[in-house]
């Protein structure tokens, strides 16, 4: 008999008052007993609606059944046939709008905790340290991958499984892309990212760090070096700004810079690590997505006394995951909804002292389906803050498109691909992830990497005759 409790088994979490002061992970994860109990909530539906909601088609009921039976090795092997980064996806995927959003249990109560179970399985196996590197016979065909984010790593792993000699070229000195420098430690421990990345390297993928494709070497030069196909997973690392007066004052950051300083450069441990990040007592983060929540919660942990999310629409329109909004509120982040900045104000030395805002109201829905915000007359006010973090989105870095003749791109910079194959306008060049879609999700980037790997395999086989 399935467990018909309308609620998920609770996941233990650090107390908000304690976690406000540390960068340790917030959610602590299920024990084996808790995971097995949650697994009994799955109805093992024949139609598997949850799987339809998963962009990489993890066989969800099958892996949950294995957890219910206490066979975690089996569960891990089922998941990793389709998803090479389960500990990461179990933590950061927007499950509520994907697998869990389709779960039949969500019709009367809470969905099965698919993400929590996926995370449990990955953590359990990694804690035992028994992920065996597989011995794969090489086929001698070289493929290059640009970028070691989830799109590039997934594509590399899938091709390596098929025997290709894959080399990943990564601009930074560390691997993982946004998983490493964007998403903070308290949501995604970096040691975990390193372990999952290592499991891909163990498939025989070669890694070339500190190489900026488009500067150190171009896409065409990679072909000259004998690579038969190239996958571009270079992400969307270029921050957007609002072009506000005062945006270049000291104390204004893009979320990208703010989070990179803290995550990758370990600014939270200054002066033991050499990169400082200055937050005043009061911080305003402009935006309402996951990036904004991460920046706000990071500012709390750096010791800011008042941290505001300034977002021009209402609560219902906030694009961040529900869990992140909930956690931010618990940690004391103040939501100033229906407010929009108009100007950043500074002192005579060029440091931020405040942000002028206007109040907004919502009108009819716009093209994105969200209600269009409009300014309320005479509603200007000044929010006194010493730091402003702009978190309103990122776009693809222009370097690859500028140095790769024949590559068609959208007006906003996204690389244009054929959806079924991820092939670009340049033959044998494929692309996926944020470089194609603009800022999106980890799992969509992974899905694109998988699709491209399959298509590259077919195309290169054709080449071989
Ligand atoms: C703060 C933050 C929080 C987020 N939270 C979530 C979340 O909770 N859930 C979720 O699903 N998604 C989240 N996202 C989005 C998610 O991280 C991205 O959609 C995903 O990482 C995109 O993967 P990618 O591989 O396309 O690009 P990236 O992760 O950006 O990786 C691209 C890699 O390419 C490298 N690169 C770029 N240009 C070059 C070049 N010319 N040569 C060589 N290397 C290059 C970069 O250094 C980087 O390592 C978040 C994003 C941010 C910024
Ligand atoms: S939809 Fe929900 S209950 Fe049905 S198989 Fe998937 S996880 Fe289990």
UniProtKB/TrEMBL annotation:
GO terms for molecular function: iron-sulfur cluster binding; oxidoreductase activity. Residues 142-449 form the FAD/NAD(P)-binding domain. Residues 19-128 form the Dihydroprymidine dehydrogenase domain. InterPro entries: DPD_II, FAD/NAD-bd_sf, FAD/NAD-binding_dom, Helical_ferredxn, SudA-like. Pfam families: Fer4_20 (PF14691), Pyr_redox_2 (PF07992). NCBIfam families: gltA. This is Glutamate synthase (NADPH/NADH) small chain.
């Amino acid at each position: 008999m399935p467990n018909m409790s309308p609620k998920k088994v609770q996941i233990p979490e650090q107390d908000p008052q304690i976690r406000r002061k540390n960068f340790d992970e917030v959610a602590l994860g299920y024990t084996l007993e808790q995971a097995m109990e949650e697994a009994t909530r799955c109805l093992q539906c024949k139609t598997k609606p949850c799987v339809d909601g998963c962009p990489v088609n993890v066989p969800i009921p099958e892996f949950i059944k294995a957890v219910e039976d206490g066979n975690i090795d089996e569960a891990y092997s089922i998941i990793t046939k389709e998803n090479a980064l389960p500990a990461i996806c179990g933590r950061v995927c927007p499950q509520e709008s994907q697998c869990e959003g389709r779960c039949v249990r969500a019709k009367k109560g809470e969905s099965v905790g698919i993400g929590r179970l996926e995370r449990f399985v990955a953590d359990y196996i990694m804690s035992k340290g028994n992920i065996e590197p597989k011995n794969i016979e090489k086929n001698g065909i070289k493929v290059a991958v640009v970028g070691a984010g989830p799109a590039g790593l997934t594509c590399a792993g899938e091709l390596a499984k098929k025997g290709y000699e894959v080399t990943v070229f990564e601009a930074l000195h560390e691997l993982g892309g946004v998983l490493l420098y964007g998403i903070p430690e308290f949501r995604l421990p970096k040691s975990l990212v390193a372990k999952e990345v290592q499991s891909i390297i163990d498939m025989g993928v070669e890694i070339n760090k500190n190489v900026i494709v488009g500067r150190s070497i171009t896409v065409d030069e990679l072909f000259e070096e004998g690579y038969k196909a190239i996958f571009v997973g270079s992400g969307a690392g270029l921050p957007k700004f609002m072009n506000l007066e005062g945006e270049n004052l000291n104390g204004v950051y893009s979320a990208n810079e703010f989070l990179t300083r803290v995550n990758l450069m370990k600014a939270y441990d200054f002066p033991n690590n050499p990169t400082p990040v200055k937050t005043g007592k009061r911080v305003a983060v402009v935006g309402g997505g996951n990036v904004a929540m991460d920046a706000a919660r990071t500012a709390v942990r750096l010791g800011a006394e008042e941290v505001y999310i300034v977002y021009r629409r209402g609560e219902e329109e906030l694009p961040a995951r529900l869990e992140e909004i909930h956690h931010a509120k618990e940690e004391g982040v103040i939501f100033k909804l229906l407010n929009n900045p108009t100007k950043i104000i500074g002192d005579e030395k060029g440091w931020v002292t405040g942000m002028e805002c206007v109040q907004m109201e919502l009108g009819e829905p716009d093209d994105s389906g969200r209600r269009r915000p409009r300014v309320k007359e005479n509603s200007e006010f000044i929010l006194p803050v010493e730091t402003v973090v702009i978190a309103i989105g990122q776009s693809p870095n222009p370097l690859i498109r500028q140095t790769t003749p024949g590559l068609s791109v959208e007006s906003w910079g996204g690389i244009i691909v054929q959806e079924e194959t991820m092939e670009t306008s340049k033959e044998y060049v494929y692309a996926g992830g944020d470089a194609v879609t603009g800022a999106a999700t980890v799992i969509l980037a992974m899905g694109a990497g998988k699709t491209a790997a399959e298509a590259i395999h077919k195309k290169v086989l054709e080449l071989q005759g």
